[in-house]
Amino acid sequence: MNRIAIVGHPSSGYTDVEALLKHYGMGEAAPSRREGMSVHDIEASLFKAHNAVNIEQVQTEAELSQLTPSSVWQGLALDFLLGNMQQKGVWGWASSNTLPLLNMWHEVDDQTAFLLVYQHPAIALQNALDRKESISPTEVLNNWAAYHGALLAFYLRHPERSFLVHTQQLLSQPQEVLKALPGLSAKPTEGLVATTKASPLTAVLNSLEGGEQTETAYLEAEPLERFLSEQVVEKHPALSLFEELQASATQPGEVNGGIASEDAWKHFRQQRVALLNTLTKLQQALEKESAKNATLKRENEELKKTPPTPTVAAVDTTELQQENSMLLEQLHVVQEELEKLYSQARKKGTVVSESGPYYGAEQRVKRQLTYRLGAVVVNSHSVKDFVCLPLALKREYAAYQKDVKARKGEKLPPISQYADAHKAEQVKRHLSYRLGQAIMDNAGSPVGWLKLPMALSRETKAFRKERQR
Length: 469
What we know:
Blueprint: E1 3-8, H1 14-23, E2 27-28, H2 39-49, H3 71-82, E3 91-95, H4 102-108, E4 112-118, H5 121-130, H6 137-157, E5 162-166, H7 167-172, H8 175-179, H9 200-207, H10 213-219, H11 222-233, H12 238-248, H13 261-305, H14 310-347, H15 361-367, H16 369-378, H17 383-387, H18 389-406, H19 421-428, H20 431-442, H21 446-467
Parallel strand pairs: 1-3, 1-4, 2-3, 4-5
């Protein structure tokens, strides 16, 4: 038997068992050969095809009756096995969803061993608390009993290829089961590192100054959880089923006495003291952080009130004067260029080369120099943009001239003949076109150029006023 299927309830810790066997040489299951599906994909497809109930929602053992897939669906399982034919050593997988499909896997492959793992039902209650589930303890225990009832039934039917083991007992003493699974190494391939996950309160306490290990230990609620869980389990049939599992198991768990009520009470009392100390330390840490925050706010306000030094102010004034001088020089240069392009723009005409209908009136207007110059002004937001505006207008004019040369010989009809001529009128109401028109109207003379800033301002205000109507 060189295949191992590890099956257990979600609370059984079957993934820990899988990790243990991988350390002892068990390989990872490869996907199926033809479809490329993993064993989990195959099981999910079978569940969907047979409308199977979610494993974590079942309440009775009858809901976990063995599925009987047709030959077509069994072909998926065979294709999965063929995809792993090249594996030389032992390989396997772990899943809680394998339970209703145990008969199928048992029939399609006589080389598969089934490692069935379980833990005390109180663990299922504690896991439900950790996941903050809203279901009742009775529902949790009903689910545990339904799952393990079906698990035990399969083990009793097929003990020759099945191993029923207690998870914690297997993890602490794996050699007994390893001897019965040929192909696994007697020694782990690499060291196992046990990790424990601290509770949120424990992590907070450890991060505080003056945290003591004794307080950390009492913050852990495990003894209280175990005591309360065991009290609930005692009144449920799940306890009798657990005893049956223990009696039938290949490797049962060690029988330990439960948590005494007096010990649970002592732990609860010490836990209250530890929690009060923790809250005190949290309050002190919060007060320190609040004081730091207040200090930073005061320093920030003082920095805002501090005026700039005279040296900095002088430098800023000098830079502004230099920028103004450059602006005036650039305005004279651009003025001459605008006078030329204005006269040229009025002479431009188009010739109809072929019959319509024609579309693209909006693009025709946006290609015009009027719209493009106005767009440069609209896209100027900062002081630096306005200082460099003449150069930006000159660059846009140069780009426009290149576009005109590129379209030399292009014959287009008047915009009025376009099927979407109404869009051209809409574009002419855009702020870009209106500002560009103001530039064209005032760029013909030096006086107009000097009036241009006011003209642009008036046009912008008029545009905004129209938009607010």
